[in-house]
Amino acid sequence: MTSTEPGTVLITGPTRNLGRHTTLALAERRADLLLVGRAGPNLTAIAAEARARGVRVREIGCDLSRLADVRAAAATVRDLLASGTVRPLRALVANAGVMSADTRRVSADGYEMTFAVNYLAHAQLIGDLLDSFTAPARVVLVGSNTYSANVWRRMLHVPQASWADPVELARPAGGDTNPGMTEAGIAYSNAKLAILYYAHELQRHAGAGINVSVFEPGWMPGTALGRGAPKAFQAIGRALGRVPGVSTPQRSGPLLAAIAVDEKWAHLRDGAFVVKTKPTDVQPVALDRVRERRLWAATAELLERADAAP
Does residue 290 lie within any of the structural domains? Predict the structure, then answer.
């Protein structure tokens, strides 16, 4: 690793796009890796690619839409650390994400899928591992500017967040008709705003040696994030992905890896928001102590409810 303290980095969603290129960039930086993602040939393949770069890699199969899987993955990590099988945990990169095209779609625990995977799964994982880090350590969440509409987003009809109580955000839409891509976009933006609120509150609960930051990779159209969207929407995304200057996983992956381990970024904390390589002030709506405290409490309620379910 290029930080002063060598160790292990855990990354979720390591098999595709941003996650894949971040994983390989971390391996180039000599970080040992815990790869948390769906078990299968894609996870095996990225693990082999990383090992070929000379680092130790452990695959941990986990469906992030199932909180029981997330709890089991965290237990596996704790066992590996306790036994000395892996080096101390120095960073966690909460990369995995989805945007469900149908907000009626539910996770295994009954929560709206976008909120469940992008936010709740990572809150479960980080909470279960918060006492397992060795300082100095970093938690890096992947955020997005979609929570606030600027001129370009309005032109492209990208919906901004429409905040509600987190228990409501976790509730899937009802009815027989798909609410559509606008509602799907709002759900995605709400989940990304939740990540910003969570990052601020997490820093207040984390140990002094754990720094929390949020990375915005830039707009990356055409990635697997929207794979549930209509085919025409996906085709437009792929075309826009070839526009010069638009972010790509190949460019953004090494930037995310740097935030996780490079000494240059060791000072980031308090949910600092980095857009590509530039620390950036978030919009006022993303700084709200009342919402942050409520999100923390509601998250505990939602996770406990899932844990208690038969």
Answer: yes
